[in-house]
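Structure tokens
________________
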Amino acid sequence: MLLTVAPPVDVEIELRVAEIPPTNQNDTGRGIVRIDSRSMRVAGVSPGDPVLIRGPKNTFAIVDTAYPSDIGLGIIRMDGLIRANSGAAIGERVRVARAKALPVKKLAISPVGNLKVPPIDPTAITKLLKGRVMTEGDFISLRTLPKSVRDDYTHDLEIIVPLFGPQVKFRVQSVEPGGSVLIDDATAVLLEKSEEKVVRRPFVTYEDVGGMGGLVTKIREIVELPLKHPEIFTQLGIEPPKGVLMHGPPGCGKTLLAKAVANETHAHFISINGPEIVGKFAGEAEEKLRRIFANAEKNAPAIVFVDEIDAIASKRDDLYGIEGRIVAQLLTLMDGLKDRGQVIVLAATNRPDVIDAALRRPGRFDREIAIGVPDRKGRKEVLQIHVKGLPIKDVDLDKIADLTPGFTGADLAGLVKEASLLAIRRILPKIDLDDEIPSEVLSQIRVTMNDFLEALKDVEPSALREVLVEIPKVRWTDVGGLDDVKQEIRESIELPMTSPAKFRKMGIEPPRGVLLYGPPGCGKTLLVKAAANEANANFISVKGPEVLSKWVGESEKAVRSIFRKARQLAPCIVFFDEIDSIASTRGMDSNKVSERVVNQLLTELDGIEKREGVIFVAATNRPDLLDAALLRPGRIDRFVYVPAPDADSRLKVLKIHTKSMPLKAVDLRAVTKATENFGGADLEAVCREAAMFAIRENRREVTAKDFEAAVEKVGPSLDARVLDVYAGIKKSFRMRMPKEEPTYFR
């Protein structure tokens, strides 16, 4: 049954409102608040009791114990739904008191927004909401109370309504009899049609924003203080911030953060999509802007959000006619905000370099906030947000966070969606697409860890789509021999990415640049791929000649773009293959293109020092041609010579390339002896040609005779003279291969 909550007669306590921490996203949407034991004793409540929350509006919730870090702080943790129901914002104070429950009969709810939800047994919703307390007009989410305050909690309760998900909000339309309600087994729940009402302010809370660390707090300080307490700035005799420009790669959450700020501050929210402002008549765009800002001043406090501002506010040097007038009008409006502190302009772009300089000065956009790609901790926070309410089974979010470096929030949302589609695909044979899907079939949907792993094969970071990228599938076991070289590369590339604390503990900076040099075909590129894969890092592969362009400035621009992406996607390895083609000694190239590329490359390498997680790796078989400035410490710190494989290494390479090959009486040691001066690529070609001889004669096995013919056909690509030249080059470099046995990879 439903129970009416009588007016409280107990002691009211005053507490400060705080949000749910990103690490505890599982608490959101469950209708609970958390206060410490001292506050509970004063209010006379225990975990699981209903409490009245008095803010600008009254609402009800179930109380639970505070997080250990909150004890003694005098705060009440509540999610965005309860904050909306109480009308209280983060940092404001509410009064909390015990509530008593009396019987009620019926509850009617409907989804917020123009949504169609699948048919479902109302008794399933009753089971899900059992123990929840609410009142007419409240916003709720269909999530059960946590097991800490619900004795009959089982995991099956989490998947009763699998397709509603965390993004669907519901509103309590009516209760019978009136008042506030507490749900039990006898409650009759009616699921009504969706509301058609258009909400002026976006219903996004701070709990819907993850992976930004302290940026949310930073933007709250900039925006909320002028909107709520402009008198502080008046007292100090200074103007409050008028605008904030958010920039970062696409999909990192700029628009979502702006919506959350508008919703949480209860400000009038006006959203402008840059391209929509432009009209076909002269003066039309400027008039639209004037009307928008006049509306904002009339409804202050207000937030004007300009998405994709680069579309209407590019540098005027490159604009003519209407575009230049739009920029000028925007400058005038931002200078003329009369109700200072009551209208804030938020703007978002992923191209801050094209914004007109006059907009980026204090007084217009006072602050610029860079929102980057989330780190591992941030990725887990975003995943927790997107999977809450999802029927997951045996899903390790920590592992998924490890496997998704470089993913933005939008990429992670796409990953969750793709995994969900794979789960849905399993039930397709059980349904008729022309009929309603039975609730018992819907309840069978489970999203598993395997779904996520399969989805990862189809979803890649959006930032990687603009650059030359490959995700290496090579492991150290795929690289034959070269044990000393592997050790050096693991120290120079893998260790700084997997264990940066080791370098901090010793008080040194990890290598910023590594050069692999040696004869062609000896595995330089393969070694770098293995290092990138083992370090679980993003891998940007650039072939030297592909950077060059016939247009002036385009080659340098390509280099800048590559390093900018690498910094966004850290941890990241930037690998320049055949670097001698673009970084030869300056003064040797008559057309000066290579000189400009070298200069840009030197500048970027000097700029890496404050960018953690980006390592520059280059490979060449002509190190004698490289510009000397590139080879100094601080740009390229380590020089790794990749020699031609010796007998033991050749045997290991042959074993790798023949492990799946049907052999008949083949002595690989004899093949090893016959392949002196063969590189790794030569040995791979020998194995391939031997197999081709067997295929031509329609045999199922490869024999020793096939290998003899293959060795004779392929021939060595190296000779003693070439190896002597590389031995001399090796002596000219300062760094030497360490001989001690490493212990940190065991």
